[in-house]
Amino acid sequence: MQPFEIHILGCGSALPTRKHLPTCQVVDIRGKLLMIDCGEGAQLSWRKTGLNWQHITHVLLSHSHGDHVFGLPGLISTMGLLGRTSPLFIHGPAQLRPFIDFILSHFCNDLGYKVHFEVVDTTIHALIFEDRSLEVWSLPLRHRLPCCGYLIKEKPGLPHIRRQMIDFYGVPTWALNRIKAGDDWQLADGTVIPHERLTTPADPIRSYAYCSDTMPNDELVPMLKDVDLLYHEATYADSESTLANKYGHSTARQAATIAKAAGARRLLLGHFSSRYDDENILLAEAKRIFPETTLAYEGLRITP
Asked: Which pTM was predicted?
């Protein structure tokens, strides 16, 4: 199967600690790198992944709170210092435009590459961009200011050629792409060999959803239906639900409830408050509702 891997660069909330950095992730999907949020310390964490800076094509920003964007000026500058020439596309709420314009005009006005900012409507579930192999959709979140999550989905692939059957029937190389696309093969004597006999099924489609920062939002459930891996903020334990509601966040129990209702295959918790020295209290709380739950941590690599 083609690679589809999420690298956690930071999974803390507003206050950096010795254990956690502010939010940042990189999704490696079929060799394309998408960064989701860019909190302070993103570059240092990136260095530990071994990934190529220049392969980042898109940066997906959820909202304009500093713990999700303070790493962006350094990232943009470093790419320029390393000789980037290909354009960088940044997606996020309209409130981020003045911030990005300020970065470009004051610190990064001689980059050698173009930075394009594309506004995301945080009130709707909509296709943000796509190519031949993937789609990225916005997810409307409920926070203290306009905020969105993202759903990244593979597009259906083609079946795989069964080499032994191809050789057995003497199918020429030029016909393979047609067979993968659904054509049958006809032998010289007129016998038709169905393409199902010449191929094996395509790889299953995988999906990843990112929901941070947000209060519980039942409207997300149909948008997240059957997602393979759901990253959902769990800033607080349920004992702090009053604080969660005040600041527009979720508890671990609430995150697990959304995952269960959506039929997610797995849940990844993150955006932890600095008040917790041990997040296992959050893990235990979520597992009581949704057993297939894991804690995020810096350096984690996980596949949907």
From this structure: 0.90
Share of residues in the chain with pLDDT > 90 (%): 70
Q: What angle do CA 82, 87, 90 make, to 5 degrees?
A: 105
Residue 70 CA to residue 129 CA, distance in Å, equals 24
Torsion angle defined by CA atoms of residues 220, 222, 223 and 225, in that order, rounded to the nearest 10 degrees: 120
Q: Each residue of 58-67: pLDDT tens digit?
A: 999 999 999 9
Catalytic residues: 67
Burial readout 138-162 (b: 16 or more C-beta within 10 A, e: otherwise): bbbbbbeebbbbbbbbbeebebebe
Classified by CATH at the fold level, domain 4-157+203-302 comes out as Metallo-beta-lactamase; Chain A (3.60.15)
Strand partners, 29: 4, 32
Cβ–Cβ < 8 Å for 159, 195: yes
Of 55, 113, 50, the closest CA to residue 85 belongs to: 113
CB atoms within 10 A of CB 32: 15
